[in-house]
């Protein structure tokens, strides 16, 4: 029994059945046409291979090689087209779409090279009386290279297909990759042992027949052949690098073979030295940043419809802006410069006086700016036209930039190349000077569009940065102004006490008790003034936290308000815990509330203070039976800063300041009041542990 014939006949039957399935399911689409072509070539190859196993076969080895090359080429053509194709409903970016003409040229070039190595080289070797192993090795290298290329294409198709489409194409990829993987193993072993393993060759038909059902499953799952394949430029770059390195190594191996064959007694030594030198050179080339950049530019120019992979560029641009490694202005420079492979730049930003100053410098010489107003012509031109300025182009043809005058100190900056406007809301927030790139020697419309769009995004980032800086400065001034207002309010209270002393001095100056009270009041005023001066020096208010006996503090505040009626009365309902706070600040809070209660009451009325503990909190109530307040006033005006009912004598920040400080301690102030009946201020403070 001829097992080889059976093996290849089974493969023929499997692919012939697949061909019938494809013909009946074909809907005129290009994918279907290419699959039918590849399946037809595979069935033909299986039939020819089966016939070649017969004892009296009319098939020569050249015919077998020809049909096998046709089969492999048909599958590679299908894979090339699949990589280049986007489904009609695919949302993939056009920027990743490959130029069909370039891939066709690459495919045809590879096909022609295979023909030369498979058919022309053996003839030349025969006529030149070269060793037979040269033609055999060249043929085996062709089949190995084709197998590697096929597996790379399959891997690229599967890895960069949409997740939702993988269930439909995974068996197709598995089947085609299986064919190429088996060929790679078959011919690699033949190259190693200098002959084809007959068992592997015989089993090849059975192995190929197993791939037909896998392809049929993908056909059933994807009858429209709409595969959303996204081609990653990084994968193309790395694939080209791997293939290029492989071709380089094969060429070096061939050269080493000839060196050893014709080198005589020195052949082996020279061959080893040559291999080591070739390996070192390959490593240097692979790790050369300039060569890698040039390769990327070459691929973008000749194998893609657009120079840039906009998705990848925008992700990289956004990541650079979002990082925290440098200041925002420097991140803007880095993000813009990296788009064109530049390694430096300077950012100018607009200031409040409408001048532009350098805000960030990355790997550039410091500009020798002698006159900031010399940028007026440049900024006016950019603001009017929103153009990217190529400094070299400006020097060669100034008429392209009519009305533009560049300051000499700017053009004298070493490496100055491009000026990118940063526009936001029709306003020029700044501009970036980019250092000359080693990979981009000229600009086209695509470079300019990308840089202008990046400039718009960077301008919004710069505007946000400047707004944040202005807001931070405003907050600092706000904190200072608030501190000043509080201090002025305290000074007003001190002044009121001193004025009261002056008003009563003429009448009571001969009374020892009055003199003692005056001395005590002045002593208290001096202490408070000293505290205010310390607050102004430190910029902090209420920072000296101590443990306070509230009953003692309230008694002291009441004593300071006992010179006028009504005299406040303190009722301590139970032993209450101490609290942690700033003594002077907390005294000011209660002094303000008591003073307001007295002003709202008549001399014959009462102001009652209650101190007690409730549900783990310390409560202080200040109650009067004065004029009271309505609900609307309490909600909208009582704690509103600078809103006062006292005319020129009031500032309207006492209640606001009191509540804010109590809240910083973790407490709060609540008010109950009825017009004509009086008010109740309830101050709650947390337990000492949480307060501290």
Helix-strand layout with pairing:
Elements: H1 3-25, H2 30-52, H3 61-84, H4 100-127, H5 132-159, H6 166-193, H7 198-221, H8 233-262, H9 267-286, H10 289-303, H11 310-322, H12 328-339, E1 345-350, E2 356-362, H13 376-385, E3 389-390, H14 391-396, H15 408-411, E4 416-424, E5 427-435, H16 445-508, H17 512-538, E6 545-548, H18 550-560, E7 569-572, E8 579-582, H19 583-600, E9 607-614, E10 617-624, H20 631-636, H21 654-664, E11 668-674, E12 678-685, H22 688-691
Parallel strand pairs: 7-9
Antiparallel strand pairs: 1-2, 1-5, 3-4, 4-5, 6-8, 9-10, 10-12, 11-12
Structural features, described:
This protein has helices at residues 3-25, 30-52, 61-84, 100-127, 132-159, 166-193, 198-221, 233-262, 267-286, 289-303, 310-322, 328-339, 376-385, 391-396, 408-411, 445-508, 512-538, 550-560, 583-600, 631-636, 654-664, 688-691, and strands at 345-350, 356-362, 389-390, 416-424, 427-435, 545-548, 569-572, 579-582, 607-614, 617-624, 668-674, 678-685. 62% of the residues lie in helices and 11% in strands. The model is unreliable at 86-101 and 226-231 (pLDDT under 50). It is elongated. Among the domains are: 3-230, Rhopdopsin 7-helix transmembrane proteins; 542-691, Heat Shock Protein 90 (2-Layer Sandwich). It has 692 residues and is an alpha+beta fold. A 5-stranded antiparallel β-sheet has the order 2-1-5-4-3, with helices on both faces.
